[in-house]
Amino acid sequence: MKEFELIKTYFAEQIVTRRDVVVGIGDDCAIITPSEKQNIAITTDTLISGVHFPENTDAKAIGHKAIAVNLSDLAAMGAEPSWVSVAISLPSVDEDWVGDFCEGMFELCEFYNVQLIGGDTTQGPLSITVTAQGVVPPNKHLARSGAKAGDWIYVTGELGDAALALKHYYGDITINGEVLKTAMARLNQPKPKVLAGKALREYASAAIDISDGLLADLTHICKASGVGANIVLEDLPMSDALSSAVDMEQAIELALTGGDDYELLFTVSEDNKVGMETTLADMGTKVTCIGQLNGNAKITTTLNSKPAQISSYGFEHFSNE
Question: How many angstroms separate the Cα of 247 from the Cα of each of 240, 242, 253?
Fold first, then answer.
């Protein structure tokens, strides 16, 4: 199957057809007409086989994750996802693989009413680059730079399960049964917190999604906002699966530095705490306060009110060079 037949057969066929898409797949460019009085948020992420997902990950999971990680970036900015374009490099055309990949991709697009409007297909080592675009009202977007000393630090959901799955995959630990099922689902089918991100536009002072690890991503907020932070380790939200699979010390390490959680990490002033907690509770979104910002320009951790040492901060590309 050649390139244009591949695009027509698998990528051009989709359920979502938004009214704001004037020209979609099939021309040199897509044409969109965004709503009036909306800013456009744009993000791009690349997933490389063996770096962002294990090489034997099934195609449907890869398709899901390729979209999910980009929608998570939009959620962190408080944007509503609208359009995506996908550039994929394939070693060869395996029609079953491509069909499963598109199924995983389009399931998530349909759920969030996101239309695939273009991209590119080439032959080469497996990699996927997605550009996602969304809309946000003017002056309502979330950023990393608005946090202030005294703000409280929150996360959605639970941390560390995806890192636990990777530990199992690389043979560092062995898990099985429901624990393995839970961990692999968190790694392969992350759920972007789009609705929570939109709600947080009214409450959060800063936000970021957790992709490289809690500490690494909190560092971005602290540097952008010129603040420091203290994390209370016993308050980190961890699943029963993680707590039952490893000892507390390793569980804390995975929750702090593991990455691939795609939860939202955000800060809220004292005045906005109650409103935020009530709103997200009404939405069924779990949030946990894990610490507070300060003016010390560094990140510290405490365990049972005593200082605790940080041994690693999380994933960073090229850090082994």
Answer: 12, 9, 10
